Structure formats: C-alpha cells, structure tokens
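Purpose: get a first structural picture of the assembly so the mutagenesis plan has something to point at.
Setup: two entries, given in the order below. No constraints added.
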Amino acid sequence: MNNITMPGRLERNDEVMEPLRKKLYIVGIGPGKKEGMTFEAAEALSRSDCIVGYHVYTELVQADFPEKEYYTTPMTKEVDRCREALALADTGKTVSLICSGDAGVYGMSGLVWQLHGEYPDVDIQVVAGVTAALAGAAVLGAPLIHDFALISLSDLLTPWEKIEKRLRLAAEADFVIVLYNPSSKKRQDYLQKACDLILCHQSPETVCGLVENIGREGETAKVLDLSQLREESVNMFTTVFIGNSQTRVIDGKMVTPRGYTL
Amino acid sequence: MNNITMPGRLERNDEVMEPLRKKLYIVGIGPGKKEGMTFEAAEALSRSDCIVGYHVYTELVQADFPEKEYYTTPMTKEVDRCREALALADTGKTVSLICSGDAGVYGMSGLVWQLHGEYPDVDIQVVAGVTAALAGAAVLGAPLIHDFALISLSDLLTPWEKIEKRLRLAAEADFVIVLYNPSSKKRQDYLQKACDLILCHQSPETVCGLVENIGREGETAKVLDLSQLREESVNMFTTVFIGNSQTRVIDGKMVTPRGYTL
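Result (structure tokens, whole complex):
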C-alpha cells in the first residue's frame, strides 16, 4: 500500500481508520479535481480492494488508484449500487463507495444505512467531502458566509409541492439559497419556476451566481441578478446561488457580509 | 518546498495554483483532524511564507508546517486578523489565512473580500474545506441527505428576531436544520429557545443529533429526540442537528431517507 504523505510531520492516524474485515467506506471525493479530495478520502481509496460508483466518478479516481477492482452502475441505479457495495464488503473485501462532493449531501450514505440491515456484519464508515455548495462558493466569492439553505429542484424523489414550499419559506426567511439539480431535460423550466417563487419575497436585483463544472475541466462562473437568473438556461452540472437581502457584488465577486463593523 | 504526493499518478496541478506575488489564500482546514484537510489546503499552506489565524487553528497546523511565520489574533478580532493577512500579503509574502471547517461558512472569506479594496494588488484565492455540518453528519449517520438549512444561534452580529424568524420558517418548511454556535456563556438558553420555536412545527419525537469536538480529541456524538435536545446543555464546540419529519434512527444512526424504493 502506498502511503499518503504531507509536508512536515503529518502521519497517518491509524486509530482514526483501523482496518477491519467487511469494511465499507462511503467516500465523498470532493467537487472533481483531485486536489479537492481530503487526505482521509484518499486513504480510504488506497486501503480498498474495490471501488464502486457512477462511472463519471470512478473515471475521476481511476488514474490515481489503478490497481483496484472497479464496479460501475448507471445513474438511476442508486439502490443497486449501494447493495452491490455492501455485498462486496460482505465477502470480506474492503470497499469504497464513492460519491462526488460529500456522500452525505444528496449522496449515497443514507441509502447504505437504510440497506445495512441486509448486511449487518459490514462495518460502515462515512468520509466527508467538500460538497458543490462550498466549492462553488469559493469560486464565486463568499456567498455562504451566513445562514443558508440547500434545496434540490429534482422532483424524482420529492413532490414538487414540497420543493415549492421550501423555496417560498426559505426566501421569506431571507436565507441565501443554493439550488442543486436545477435542471434536466424533463425539467427545463424549473429554475424559472423557482425564481418566480423567490421573487415573491426578494428583489429582482438580488445578487445571484452560477457555477458550472465546479473543479473540473470547463469550470465557468457568473454573477448576475435574480431577474437575469430567471432567464438563464442551466444544466445538471450547474450549481445555482441566490443571495439574500444583504448579498452584494464586491470586485465582481458574490459576497454576503456578516455584519462586522469595518 | 515539500511536495504533496498521493498514491498512483496524481500530480500537483500547477495551472490550478499558479504562484503569484502578493498572494493570499483563505484556507478552510476542515473540522480539526489533519486527515480532514484537502490536498489543495495543504498545498496552499505549504506554499505560504506566513500563516495567520485564531490560535486554536494555528496550533492545529503548526506541527506539520513548522517553518512558517505564524500570526495569531484573539477570537473577537476578526477584522484585525483579515487586515493583517492582507497587509502581510501586500508586502510580497505569500500568506494563508486559516479557518476551521470551510472559510466560506461563518468564516473569514467574506470579510477579506470586504477589505480587499484597501489592498487591491493582493490576489485572493479561497480554498474550500469540509464544514462542521458535513463532518458531523458523517459521524451521526446521514442526516443531511436531503434539503437542509444552516443557522447560527450567535446574535453578536445578527438580531435575535431574524434568527427566530429563520428557525420558525425552516421548521415550517420541514428542512433538516443544523445549528452552529448553539451556546456560549452569555447565551445559555438559546438552544432551548430554538427548540421551542421548532416544536411549533415539528413533533417532540423528531430525531436530533449532537456532535462535540468533531474530528478532534474528545469527539462525542449522541442521537436523541427534540424534547430531549431541549434539555441538553451544549457548548461552543457542539454542532446540533435537528431532523425533519422523515428523519429516523437506523442502527443507532440519524438518517434522513431520500425516498428511494427499496
């Protein structure tokens, strides 16, 4: 096994990650670029015999961990993917199930815990990662410095009425709002609908931001206002940021001040 | 300069972090343990001449980056800390201003952008990290799998009425809620007040979780219900998780399912 080294005297902490038989790591690999991964995530992958994930994410790590067994499943087959990871671990192999961003934010860790009863001998360890909201915020400036809400616009698993209610109340509460899954082929007008709900409580001049392909090739970012955001076409690789009443543009960046006296 | 190496063929990507004169990195170092830091964060520290931060955080990294100049400021002197970091970078030194968790979530990146006009020649780069909500969620199980809201209970910089409104509306929207800064010496009863507001919309049996000293020595976690949470005493090192109507306990873990058919 290769060790991960850091400058200076950092040592791998064996107490933190004691290898066990029947071990499943659920690993958030960060936003995309390898540098955004934590040392703990890389260590989990390094310790694993098998890596399981959606093919886009396994392709991101395959070059750095070439000697692993890879298992990929299609995007809509999340339940199969989690069962496969648990079943593999149950054979005695050490397995990493990888997710982009953080495994605990619209990721696989919930499903794995739900399915754990089928494979009770498997020891599960979740390894946190940098989710798109945080990575995108770093690109845009500092939009999430204060209270914020994360909302997915995907109604595959959530009734649209519930999503609408959350958008409405989050805007009324003056949260900065981050939208995940803002669009798909079947949901072309959902971002427009979301903006209309937010416009009931926030001004059309509210500062907003878009980041596409965060931390990957073709990363692009844009700062615009809420009325312009309503007319934007976005895709499933876009993360959308809608400011609150205090968010403003400083040096072309999207910044939500926290109230310090300067 | 020491290089960071990963297993396999990962190379430092010089295009991502081109060294510049007058460079200020604003670095989220993750929840505490060194393994929770990203490669990009370690690389920024490694490239820096000076490291600036609150002493608790500089002490976390000092052993691994011993040959740096360290500058510390007290906790309430955030504006001074950011000005000092910018002023140091303006002398031509490469500087990292470090924050625990993510620099963009209740961190210093907002202030630095606000003060940037005083030091316009300094090039700023924010390096995202794993915030306490994500690291704590990985310990508790999978509470944040679906939409959630982050709320700080500190009223030092935010009127309490605004915090109350956000708590009330977030509970009405059935968000999972993460509370930062749930208590301090002057705010002993704020968590109780917050629970009372949430209890207007959520059941006393709502699944909740607490994590103290996330990723540090003395890490403890507890799963309990909302009526029990109301009676808990917490401190400034505790992160509080309040589930939504769907959150439940599985294998002793706090899990918010996303609606998959199993």
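The two ends of chain B are 51 Å apart (CA to CA).
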